[in-house]
């Protein structure tokens, strides 16, 4: 049956002389990826599941690939198709990193089943104020597009429910202390026995193995241990943490990508795998040049307030009534800054001819620029910088953020700010994913 | 870079001469290579192509036909003007996944503004909420807005690849710094949108969880995160302040948030009595998340950081042995492979023209002579 659909394929379902310059149909000798729904169906009706049949929701007549005539199957031409439709995620995560990742997967069309312990449920349900009709806004902000099931994993019959769900899910995401789920019978090795296609994504504080693997992980701690806190704060002041849990969020972002990488890999291999995401690794990886400076040049990092170690001028300047942030990252932009500030003599100064030199002589240059910036209001400067090609901006409060026309314009009000009704309150405004995946027909 | 780590073949297009701006960012440099550039460009090939030269543009057109994904961060409209917009390229390659990264979005009132992390951090509210409790705003010490956008983008590209399996077609993705950071405001934003609560700076503390912050110790600081009642009781146990667990004002997180000043004062007074190392040891096995505020040196001396393979070493053709922070995610299906060092500008121009576009030596030489492309002396 499969070869009827794909006449150019050999009987073992590999593309003949696959030309990687054209089609990227990733088919394997064992057949294509079967969605959880199809697996469930075929488990009940074995006669319907010849090897290699594309899962039912996806199956359709093939169309000619536009470039060189290879055959591929496809469904409707992309109007409102979401990438992860048909993917079922068993979500055993709590707090932020995991729920943030599964929220994005839900935004992309996956069916997310959030498992919570009966009673309190996800810790964040209790985090506040503020609450809205006794619902924690912290919880609400990162849990849309999910179903919640309350299951006691320690109850034998609750455990059995989870076992059965794991069989019919494509992805399991968890953030337990490493080893804990294994102890309960839900480890990767155990579940992959009954569901070899399961993509098992573990999120932890420090990693699945190693000296710290048993330490509970939270953003604030990971931020401190990973060096993030050390590098954030006023130039001559104490360390602070980023105002929102960027370590947690970065981990969630790494995880959502890793899950999709695993889904892509499964198209080729037909098998699942185990993913190790953790707060420490996510944040240390994100140290990027800060880390490279230390590892290669022995240069310890320090705090810079709003400024940048390697780029000048790149910081906030006090204005008459507040502050403006300016980012002149190359010579062209620096010249334009001087033009707007009416300080063209600076462009001739030998000490400021390149970024490297500006970094070297930063104190003097920044002093000169600061003295000029403080002479006008923020709004005045913003207007003067319009069209200059220099990145500038105000330090917006949250109110100012959501009054910004671009914030609402991003996808005409629906991308960054959507409102809908859910029980028991009247309207809740939540942030929708920043991704736009326009329909192919547009 | 992450896509390269996951096995993709990444062809980095740079303008002949200066190349990627970050090649000039420093000090520090290593053998005249910018460490900023080196830290985020492994596992890629570099071709030096002048997009404004007609023959250079033709090279890009041909490459776009045989690539799965195109990622760009030009000012919206600019590539279209040069003939490389999504609508144009998808005509010749309908499977092309075209991911645009910009400061503010592909359309809208700010779409033409150049976007950089510092500005986006300010405009999106991130700077407003970061800094000492009674001090000025600061930016996160590394460009988390940029990085979050890159992370959203790498996921989006893979989502699009998954979608292409079903539809057979590519699509256009709009990632931008503003949206990435505003989305990441999560509860901070929800607090404002629903309860009208403006955010403020909290230093190392947390608005909705107490105690969750750094405390001064005798010789430095320790960060403690007691996020539920069980952990709070354990903190009191380690601090030998069990009476606090009986105090009606501290019975739940909600109450602890309400009476934070008093509670934090009591805890602070105790923390300052011992060294950081002493407290860390006492908290071992307590189940309470705690940690020191590590310098970068301390980070890379940490045994877990080393265990996680976060120091990735490779040999660069001119800078010699270099080390960069390694990939964050481990997959059971493949080991973190030997990385390819960040390329010199135009290091792979000839290789790509020959192996991917099948150009003859003659054509390649003509292109080099015309200045449309350039090849580094190292290949």
Automatic annotation (TrEMBL), chain A:
<protein>
    <recommendedName>
        <fullName>Succinyl-CoA:glutarate CoA-transferase</fullName>
        <ecNumber>2.8.3.13</ecNumber>
    </recommendedName>
</protein>
<comment type="function">
    <text>Coenzyme A (CoA) transferase that reversibly catalyzes the transfer of a CoA moiety from a dicarboxyl-CoA to a dicarboxylate in a metabolite recycling process. Displays preference for succinyl-CoA and glutarate-CoA as dicarboxyl-CoA donors and glutarate, succinate, adipate/hexanedioate, itaconate and 3-hydroxy-3-methylglutarate as dicarboxylate acceptors. Acts on intermediates or end products of lysine and tryptophan degradation pathway, in particular catalyzes succinyl-CoA-dependent reesterification of free glutarate into glutaryl-CoA to prevent renal excretion of glutarate.</text>
</comment>
<dbReference type="GO" id="GO:0005739">
    <property type="term" value="C:mitochondrion"/>
</dbReference>
<comment type="similarity">
    <text>Belongs to the CoA-transferase III family.</text>
</comment>
<dbReference type="Pfam" id="PF02515">
    <property type="entry name" value="CoA_transf_3"/>
</dbReference>
<dbReference type="InterPro" id="IPR023606">
    <property type="entry name" value="CoA-Trfase_III_dom_1_sf"/>
</dbReference>
<keyword id="KW-0496">Mitochondrion</keyword>
<dbReference type="GO" id="GO:0047369">
    <property type="term" value="F:succinate-hydroxymethylglutarate CoA-transferase activity"/>
</dbReference>
<keyword id="KW-0007">Acetylation</keyword>
<dbReference type="InterPro" id="IPR044855">
    <property type="entry name" value="CoA-Trfase_III_dom3_sf"/>
</dbReference>
<dbReference type="InterPro" id="IPR050483">
    <property type="entry name" value="CoA-transferase_III_domain"/>
</dbReference>
<dbReference type="InterPro" id="IPR003673">
    <property type="entry name" value="CoA-Trfase_fam_III"/>
</dbReference>
<keyword id="KW-0808">Transferase</keyword>
<keyword id="KW-0809">Transit peptide</keyword>
UniProtKB/TrEMBL annotation, chain B:
<comment type="similarity">
    <text>Belongs to the CoA-transferase III family.</text>
</comment>
<dbReference type="GO" id="GO:0005739">
    <property type="term" value="C:mitochondrion"/>
</dbReference>
<dbReference type="InterPro" id="IPR044855">
    <property type="entry name" value="CoA-Trfase_III_dom3_sf"/>
</dbReference>
<protein>
    <submittedName>
        <fullName>Succinate--hydroxymethylglutarate CoA-transferase isoform X3</fullName>
    </submittedName>
</protein>
<dbReference type="InterPro" id="IPR050483">
    <property type="entry name" value="CoA-transferase_III_domain"/>
</dbReference>
<keyword id="KW-0808">Transferase</keyword>
<dbReference type="InterPro" id="IPR023606">
    <property type="entry name" value="CoA-Trfase_III_dom_1_sf"/>
</dbReference>
<dbReference type="Pfam" id="PF02515">
    <property type="entry name" value="CoA_transf_3"/>
</dbReference>
<dbReference type="InterPro" id="IPR003673">
    <property type="entry name" value="CoA-Trfase_fam_III"/>
</dbReference>
<dbReference type="GO" id="GO:0047369">
    <property type="term" value="F:succinate-hydroxymethylglutarate CoA-transferase activity"/>
</dbReference>
């Amino acid at each position: 049956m499969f070869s009827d659909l794909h006449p150019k394929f050999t009987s073992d379902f590999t593309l003949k002389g696959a030309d990687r310059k054209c089609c990227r149909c990733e088919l394997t000798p064992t057949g294509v990826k079967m969605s959880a729904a199809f697996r469930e169906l075929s488990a009940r009706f074995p006669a319907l599941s010849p090897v290699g049949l594309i899962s039912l929701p996806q199956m359709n007549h093939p169309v000619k690939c536009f470039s060189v005539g290879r055959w591929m199957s496809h469904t409707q031409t992309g109007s409102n198709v979401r990438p992860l439709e048909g993917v079922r995620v068993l979500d055993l995560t709590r707090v932020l990193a995991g729920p943030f990742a599964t929220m994005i997967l839900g935004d992309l069309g996956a069916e997310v089943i959030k498992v919570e312990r009966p009673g309190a449920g996800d810790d964040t349900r209790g985090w506040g104020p503020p609450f809205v009709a006794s619902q924690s806004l912290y919880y609400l902000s990162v849990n849309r597009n999910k179903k919640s099931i309350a299951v006691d994993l320690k109850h034998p019959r609750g455990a059995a429910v989870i076992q059965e769900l794991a069989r019919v899910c494509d992805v399991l995401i968890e953030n337990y202390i490493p080893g804990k789920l294994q102890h309960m019978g839900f480890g990767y090795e155990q579940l992959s026995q009954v569901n070899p296609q399961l993509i098992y994504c573990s999120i932890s504080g420090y990693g699945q193995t190693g000296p710290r693997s048993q330490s509970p992980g939270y953003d604030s701690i990971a931020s401190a241990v990973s060096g993030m806190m050390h590098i954030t704060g006023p130039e001559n002041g104490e360390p602070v943490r980023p105002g929102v849990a960027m370590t947690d969020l970065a981990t969630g972002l790494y995880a959502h990508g890793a899950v999709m990488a695993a889904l892509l890999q499964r198209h080729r291999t037909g098998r699942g795998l185990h993913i190790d995401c953790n707060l420490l690794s996510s944040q240390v990886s994100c140290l990027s040049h800060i880390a490279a400076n230390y590892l290669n040049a022995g240069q310890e990092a320090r705090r810079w307030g709003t400024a940048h170690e390697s780029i000048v001028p790149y910081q906030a300047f006090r204005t008459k009534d507040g502050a403006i942030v300016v980012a002149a990252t190359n010579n062209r932009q620096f010249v334009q800054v001087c033009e707007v500030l009416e300080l063209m003599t600076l462009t001739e100064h030998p000490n400021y001819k390149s970024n490297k030199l500006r970094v070297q002589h930063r104190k003097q240059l920044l002093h000169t620029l600061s003295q000029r910036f403080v002479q006008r209001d923020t709004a005045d400067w913003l207007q003067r910088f319009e069209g200059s090609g220099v990145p500038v901006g105000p330090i917006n409060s949250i109110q100012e953020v959501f009054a910004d026309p671009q914030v609402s314009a991003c996808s005409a009000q629906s991308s960054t700010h959507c409102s809908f009704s859910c029980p028991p309150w009247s309207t809740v405004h939540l942030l929708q994913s920043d991704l736009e995946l326009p329909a192919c027909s547009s």
